[in-house]
Amino acid sequence: MSLREYQKKRDFKKTAEPPGKKEKSSAVRRFVIQKHAASHLHYDFRLELDGQLKSWAVPKGIPFVKGEKRLAVEVEDHPLSYIHFEGPIPQGQYGGGTVMVWDTGTYVPASKAPLKELQGGKLHFTLHGKKLKGEWYLVRLRHENQWLLIRGGEDMKPVSKRADDTSALSGRNMKSLADAEPWTSSRKKLNAKPEPTPKAKEKPAAKPAKGPPPASHSALFVEPMKAKALTAPPTDENWVYEIKFDGFRALTIKQGKHTSLISRTEKDMTDKFPEVTEALHALSLPDCILDGEIVALDEKGHSSFQLLQAYDLGRERPPLCYYVFDLLRLKGRDLTGQPLQKRKEALRELFKDSDVIRYSDSLEGDVNELLKQAKKLGLEGLIGKRPDSKYEVGRRSGQWIKLKLHHEQEVVIGGYTQPTGSRKHIGALIVGVHVEGKLQSTGKVGTGFDTKLLRELHDRFEPLIQDKCPFANLPADSSGRWGQGITKSEMKHCTWLKPKLVCQVKFAEWTQDNRLRQPVFLGMREDKPAREVVRERIQES
Fold it and tell me: Mean of the per-residue pLDDT values for the chain?
């Protein structure tokens, strides 16, 4: 099963797959699993060994239950650069169809001589991937090319339907990859465009442009304007109000055939929310920059950050909406210097609402009555804006304000306690907010997690571990009435982290010593820089 067989089967003038050559193995042993929609859908399982990828086709997918067996047919070795390949293989070529990097990571063989063990017909190993974790075995059957892939160790919860259709490399799904520019280790483009698959031919003519956004999108990015939190509504009447949504702030940059969704921290979310991207493209917008909020809707039609987090983790598929509330640029013309009222008028004329893309209208009337109605409807709060306000890029000037109705708070994660009892991985998060430029602990968050989430957080925390406590107000003199203080003796058993990650919590109230009472974890905030996290003030009723 040498690389010579791999080369014989492919015409590299027609396929973007990397040419086959033996390479020097990396310092760690890598694996990749590629979902492959060829003549029959299957999963290609590949382990880095001896400078190449030992490969098996697994028709029924990966086993998750201890002792469960799946047939794995050994195929030709692949080059190491194939770890990064995904996209279409032209029809008529060997393996023609769509390839997705379904999972990737490292593995640890139980044997010190894995190649010798494999040649003997059995290999025991542990995967450390983005989706797969734990033990598996490969056992050869009597037929030389037929093996069994067997789950060892503990049962693993199967990945969700969304995670199964999400690339671990690019975040795309199989549908979007069918027309994508193939990714290789060098992202080399073909001179001849691959023939579309039959599936691609059935799509409508209008499609979002694929591949990474053009460099000009980065040049067009502007940091979103921010709202100032108030504890009471303003007394003057020169304000208009909008519903406050609980989701991810996102700019839309539309230029030519490309539509990009960019977070307020300039992260590309285009492939993270394909439903939104495709709905935006369907509007056939002119070149423009929109400002809005991506939200997940609950059964009552309210925005739910918990549901959005579940969508992000691939656990649920709630309906998504993108509420658009501002227009910053239109057909090459900068609108940030125009008053809000004119920008909203131009925005309203730009598109008609769809199920996914919706215009966030302004509400007029007495703010106290609006707040009462918002509270009755279970909304998070209101955003107030001066009708004549300019769009002040990256600023929190007070021309926009937010009035919150629920006790929720963004907090910086600075450490965690050790698990106790049957709990695994981590105990409680140690969190805080910035006060006068210093990170102050607001206590511990110990609820709102399941075992899978605790494991995911633990894996994410590992690169951030440090010896120094990042909180300026620790140790505390006592644990306090609600047990949220962390004393000197308790600190000895804490693991400290670089304060770079932000999460959102709900809670009962602020205590007199400025700690959170009964906080519950809602989800991670990927769109919020840790340095900006300060205490939010709830609207006083």
Answer: 86
Look at residue 479 in the predicted model and tell me its pLDDT. 74
Residue pLDDT, tens place only, 26-80? 667 899 999 999 888 999 999 999 889 999 999 999 999 999 999 999 999 999 8
User: Are 77 and 66 spatial neighbours (Cβ–Cβ below 8 Å)?
Assistant: no
Whether 244 is catalytic is yes
Residue 338: which of 400, 303, 275, 387 has the closest Cα? 387
Q: Which of 244, 254, 272, 444 is catalytic?
A: 244
Is the pLDDT at 91 greater than 90, yes or no? no
Residue 112 corresponds to which tokens in the numbers above?
A: 């010190």
Phi, psi at 409, each rounded to 5°: -150, 135
The yes-or-no verdict on residue 473 having pLDDT over 90 is: yes
Which amino acid appears at position 373 of this protein? Q
CATH superfamily of the domain spanning 215-403: DNA ligase/mRNA capping enzyme (3.30.470.30)
What would the two tokens of residue 319 be?
């309906």
Put residue 212 in one of left, alpha, beta given phi > 0 → left and psi -120 to 50 → alpha: beta
Cα distance between residue 447 and residue 520, in whole Å: 5
Which of 81-90, 124-133, 302-311, 399-408 has the lowest average pLDDT?
Answer: 302-311
State the CB neighbour count (10 A cutoff) for residue 515: 25
Is 7 exposed, middle or buried, given 0-12, 13-18 or 19+ CB atoms closer than 10 A? Answer: middle
- Domain residue spans in the chain? 3-201, 215-403, 408-532
At 442 the pLDDT is 94
Please give the sequence-ordered ranges of beta strands (E in DSSP) within 1-118, or none if there are none.
30-37, 41-49, 52-58, 69-78, 87-89, 97-109
d(CA 250, CA 224): 9
What residues have CB less than 8 Å from 112, skipping those under 6 apart?
Answer: none
Helix (H) or strand (E) holding 281: helix 274-282
One DSSP character per residue, 405-474 reads: -S-EEEEEEEEEEPP-TT--S-S-EEEEEEETTEEEEEEEE--S--HHHHHHHHHHHGGGEESS---TT-
Element (H, E) at 292: strand 288-296
**CATH 1.10.3720.10 given to domain 408-532:** no
Between CA 123 and CA 314 the distance in angstroms is: 31
The 3-state DSSP class for residue 142 equals coil
Measured CA to CA, the distance from residue 304 to residue 153 in angstroms comes to 36
Query: Which tens digits make up the pLDDT trace of 98-111?
Result: 999 999 989 999 98
Residue 204, pLDDT score: 42
pLDDT score recorded for residue 198:
36
